[in-house]
Amino acid sequence: MRLKLFLIFLSVLLLSGCAHVISKDLRARTDPSLTFRQVLQDPKAYIGKYVVWGGEIIQTTNQQDGTTMIEIFQRPLGWQDNPKETSPSEGRFLVTVPKYLDPYVFSKGREVTVAGEIQGERIRPIGEMQYRYPVVSGDQVHIWREYYSSPYYYDPYYRYYYDPWWPSFWWRFHFQHRF
């Protein structure tokens, strides 16, 4: 009986760690073959298509009409829809969210994953050049947790040892504190 309970607990724990941050119905609307690079070439041609993109926040601006505009430095997504830190970016995009988002929480450098409909493009300056941003509605926005990192030392196993949401943490915790 104890073995069955342990196996049930373990399977629930492992399955919960594999859940996507974007809802199933939004992911079902997206076209996985549509790449960021394709949309960046001509955003108007893809109006109405749904995408799941992510990256790092560059700037969060609250508008007069109560909406929020987030400028994001795009990064490819990993298997849990989290932005990959080591992958090169293909550009930038804008997300419009129909509510107030606090710029302190959605601050520069935070990782985010967004699902929404392509609304077109907006031309804005970056330095002295004009840049064409694809604009996506923020139907679902997931901001990822920040992890402490020292400027002098990087611990690649931080999540393994200290993050309670990382599955191996619970595995280790169970066996270290069993006796």
How would you describe this structure to a colleague?
The chain is of the alpha+beta class and 179 residues long. It contains 5 helices and 6 strands. The protein has a domain at 22-146: OB fold (Dihydrolipoamide Acetyltransferase, E2P). The chain has helices at residues 2-16, 24-29, 36-41, 158-162, 167-176; strands spanning 50-62, 68-75, 92-97, 111-126, 129-137, 140-143. The protein has a 5-stranded mixed beta barrel. The two termini are 20 Å apart.
- CATH architecture field of the domain at 22-146: Beta Barrel
Judged by helices, strands and strand pairing, the structural class is alpha+beta
Give me the CATH superfamily of the domain at 22-146: Nucleic acid-binding proteins
Instruction: Pick out the low-confidence regions.
Output: 169-179
Write down the CATH class of the domain at 22-146. Answer: Mainly Beta
- Mind summarizing the main beta sheet? 5 strands, mixed, barrel
CATH topology of the domain at 22-146: OB fold (Dihydrolipoamide Acetyltransferase, E2P)
Classify the oligomer. Answer: single chain
Strand order of the largest sheet: 1-2-3-5-4
Q: What proportion of the residues form beta strands (DSSP E)?
A: 25-35%
* Mean pLDDT across every amino acid position: 81
Main attributes of the structure:
5 helices; 179 residues; alpha+beta; OB fold (Dihydrolipoamide Acetyltransferase, E2P); disordered C terminus
